């Protein structure tokens, strides 16, 4: 009886917290994001957490339609919540260094992922984002939910063409 209750409890936990994983699968397709940290709870390749597009799109996500300084008119962005990606990797720390394909980087407090519905956008207007269109990943703040975020502080953290995230204390 106790074993059945334990399995039921574990099954309910998995249903209630789908981004919690005991292990992170290895990517089957092209790696588009690598997360590194002093310690990751769920590394899948060496000491990093690497993701392909299907892995990212399987995480808890959000879609938001908003205006940005980098696009014309309202644009619909969708992708996993940044906090869901960090949880899947088991990344802990206080600062994220978001690094683009051209090695541009920005420091982002982990608090932005925890408290704001920041999107690691994989799609713009329903289409996967190519490098030409600021892809494969673009950190989007919830400008549609909070107009006070529409300022230079958050614009400077909105990195596009993201390739990796380094997590530090």
Describe this protein with a few key phrases.
Sulfite Oxidase, Chain A, domain 2, 169 residues, 5-stranded mixed sheet, 5 helices, 22% helix, single chain, alpha+beta, 4-stranded antiparallel sheet
Main pleated sheet: 5 strands, mixed
Structural class: alpha+beta
Helix tally? 5
**How far is it from the N-terminal to the C-terminal residue, by CA?**
44 Å
Output the helix-strand order. HEEHEEHEEHEEEEHE
Radius of gyration: 17 Å
Number of domains: 1
Write out the CATH superfamily name. Oxidoreductase, molybdopterin-binding domain
- Top CATH class: Alpha Beta
Fraction in beta strands: 25-35%
State the CATH topology.
Sulfite Oxidase, Chain A, domain 2
CATH architecture: Alpha-Beta Complex
Helicity range: 10-25%
């Amino acid at each position: 009886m106790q074993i059945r209750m334990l399995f039921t409890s574990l099954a309910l936990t998995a249903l209630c917290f789908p981004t919690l994983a005991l292990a992170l699968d290895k990517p089957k397709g092209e790696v588009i994001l690598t997360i590194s940290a002093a310690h990751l709870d769920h590394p899948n390749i060496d000491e990093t957490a690497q993701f392909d597009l299907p892995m990212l799109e399987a995480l808890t996500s959000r879609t938001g339609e908003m205006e940005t300084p980098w696009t014309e008119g309202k644009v619909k962005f969708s992708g996993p919540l940044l906090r869901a990606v960090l949880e899947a990797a088991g990344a802990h720390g206080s600062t994220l260094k978001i690094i683009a394909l051209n090695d541009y980087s920005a420091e982002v407090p982990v608090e932005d992922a925890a408290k704001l519905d920041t999107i690691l956008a994989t799609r713009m207007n329903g289409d996967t984002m190519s490098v030409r269109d600021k892809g494969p990943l673009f950190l989007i703040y919830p400008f549609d939910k909070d107009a006070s975020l529409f300022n230079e502080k958050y614009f400077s953290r909105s990195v596009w063409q993201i390739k990796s995230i380094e997590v530090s204390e």
